Amino acid sequence: MNSFRICGLALAAWILFSQTVPASEPVRLTTDGLFKRDLVFCPGGTELAYGVLSLFDGPDKGRVRLMKMKLADGSVTEFAKGAGRELAFSADGNVYAYCVVDNTFMRVAIEVRNVKLDKAMRIERKFFVSRPTLSPDGNRIVFMDP
Questions:
Q1: Left if phi > 0, otherwise alpha if psi is -120 to 50, otherwise beta: which for 59?
Q2: Whole-angstrom Cα distance, residue 87 to residue 107?
Q3: Domains of the chain
Q4: Which of 8, 79, 92, 129 has the fewest CB atoms within 10 Å, i.e. the most exposed one?
Q5: Residue 12: per-residue pLDDT
Q6: DSSP category for residue 138
Q7: Do the beta carbons of residue 8 and residue 2 sit within 8 Å?
Q8: Where are the beta strands (DSSP E) in the chain?
Q9: 83 by DSSP, 3-state: which?
């Protein structure tokens, strides 16, 4: 991979675009210059969820905050306290899961939250885990564990 392609990939992560499938012109959704990752549609399709890398000084520097954007008006709010990545929702939207990085011990856990019951659980592992996926009803979770 040459440096031009690497620069192009890095630039694409800084700005969110929207495009209808199979073909239309992309529409720019953000211009804030923040580094975004792990973009997913929320159940219902009216909001996007994604992680934003905090580049500013302070206790959150270098951490990924989970955000939601309403597609109707572009308003953005933080919806999960703490840092996370690789977000997944159940089809009904009542349960979501994401990976939490513990930089102290170089370990990743999975946080699972049930919005309807206002409950959370954490799946701790000895090594990195990734890619949580929830069943449509939110009762089961599958993830990668090396």
A1: alpha
A2: 17
A3: 31-144 (2.120.10.30)
A4: 8
A5: 43
A6: S
A7: no
A8: 17-18, 27-28, 36-41, 47-53, 64-70, 76-83, 85-89, 95-102, 107-114, 119-123, 130-134, 141-144
A9: strand
Tell me the pTM: 0.73
Are 130 and 123 in contact by the 8 Å Cβ rule? The answer is: no
Residue 129 corresponds to which tokens in the numbers above?
């885990």
Q: What is the pLDDT of residues 71-124, one digit of tens each?
A: 999 999 988 766 678 889 999 999 999 888 766 556 678 889 998 898 999 888
Q: How far apart are CA 141 and CA 20, in angstroms?
A: 30
Instruction: Quickly count: other Cβ atoms within 10 Å of residue 103's Cβ.
Output: 9
Question: Do residues 120 and 80 touch, judged by C-beta distance below 8 A?
Answer: no
